[in-house]
Amino acid sequence: MTVYLPIAELSVNIFIILGMGAAVGFLSGMFGVGGGFLITPLLIFYNIPPVVAVATGANQVVASSISGALSHFRRGTLDVKLGTVLLLGGLTGATVGIWIFALLRSVGQLDLVISLLYVVLLGTVGTLMLLESIRAMRRSANNQPVSLRRPGQHSWVHRLPLKMRFKKSKIYLSVIPVIGLGFGIGILTSVMGVGGGFIMVPAMIYLLRIPTNVVVGTSLFQIIFVTAYTTVVQATTNYSVDIVLAFVLMVAGVIGAQYGVRVGQKLRGEQLRALLALLVLAVGARLAVDLVVTPADIYSIVSEGVYR
């Protein structure tokens, strides 16, 4: 059964799109990531034009993130105050990112930059997360205490001014790195069509020393509003959001996210990080292969930044 996508200008198998949305939604709820780092490459692999994949992928992230965030809110594992501070930086970064997106598209380098950014970011983040989670699981197997927040140990981040107390996360931290993290994620959301959870989650855990159980829900909370803002602006300025594709992905993503939250609650923090790291590395490797392998069609005709 096929459905026609008016903005992408091609027909796709609706069951494949539904499967993509459900799988990404499941992983979103399980790991606390928006899933954009998966849905955007998957759409590109399925021959959706990168311009449409980035903008529409961000839209799908909104639905799955809302579903997952509500589940975490009911469980009391969402720090709204911390999420709001992240959101301030995220909205500013998203605005800058949309300008960068339009600039890259105008010079014809958007596709290449998107692929390179994915390979570098996914490879780096995935490797660091995998190494740390393996060390944590080894300590756990040897009955050694596994703690990401050691009393009395503080990095340069904890010596910055403008500190604020976040009671739900049980931390006293400067808002500067929090806003800075949100700003960087906002740029990535606009340029790459990602929620940024695959970077935000480890950064909040390892850099800001926020408890893992609170990080997941708080990450999804920030992702909701930044991706929603990005989607609206992309649709009104770049006209690259395919509403039909977005709707199918959203329906499947919401359902998948609910099951993902249930599974994620049953796994330990280091196990979740290891699984997420393997997933990130797998997607990065697949994109890296596409960059070096000669494509079947060496030449393509492009009109106004969208493949014909």
What can be said about this structure in brief?
By secondary structure, the chain is mostly helical.
Describe this structure in words.
With 308 residues, this protein is mainly alpha-helical. 69% of the residues lie in helices and 6% in strands. It has ten helices and six strands; from the N terminus they run E-E-H-H-H-H-H-E-E-H-H-H-H-H-E-E. The protein has helices at residues 14-31, 36-45, 50-75, 80-106, 110-141, 175-192, 197-207, 212-237, 243-264, 269-292, and strands spanning 2-5, 10-13, 163-166, 171-174, 302-303, 306-307. The strands form three sheets. Strands 1-2 form a two-stranded antiparallel sheet. A two-stranded antiparallel ribbon has the order 3-4. Strands 5-6 form a two-stranded antiparallel sheet. The model is unreliable at 148-153 and 303-308 (pLDDT under 50).
